[in-house]
Amino acid sequence: xxxxxxxxxxxxxxxxxxxxxxxxxxxxxxxxxxxxxxxxxxxxxxxxxxxxxxxxxxxxxxxxxxxxxxxxxxxxxxxxxxxxxxxxxxxxxxxxxxxxxxxxxxxxxxxxxxxxxxxxxxxxxxxxxxxxxxxxxxxxxxxxxxxxxxxxxxxxxxxxxxxxxxxxxxxxxxxxxxxxxxxxxxxxxxxxxxx
Length: 195
Hints:
Elements: H1 9-34, H2 37-60, E1 64-68, E2 76-81, E3 111-112, E4 117-121, E5 125-128, E6 134-136, H3 145-152, E7 163-167, E8 172-179, E9 184-192
């Protein structure tokens, strides 16, 4: 009887088919896992910028402001400190990161959201007091915690909150509710509007 060395063509073909099937399955599972990660990462970035502004305000004993990019554009935030010559706790800038403001920019505070993630809803600016209290720009209607919970725990949640982040051209949204007293994100909720 002759001994065989190596594999037959059929055995190699079966192994290749199994490898292709496993690779296809793992790609499909990973795509499900990574859906909406940009919106979730954006929420973490907003949380970090809030913490940075609170730290700066407490350190300098002066109001600091987080200025948000316009809705549905590439998302960014920038921290400014209250004008030392006229400290009034109100942001007096023009919301353009390319021009100087009376309320000076904190160095290295310009922060971008992940690619293709934008603010759908946000205040124009957010004030952080030295004690950590948070205030919104005049005219901004704050979302109450009870209203946020009612909408998010209802049968069909819709994008509401003090800050709403959306992945552009995708059905993924992250809704954030800010606690005024602590200047922190009180609640967040991820919405996937895929059919």
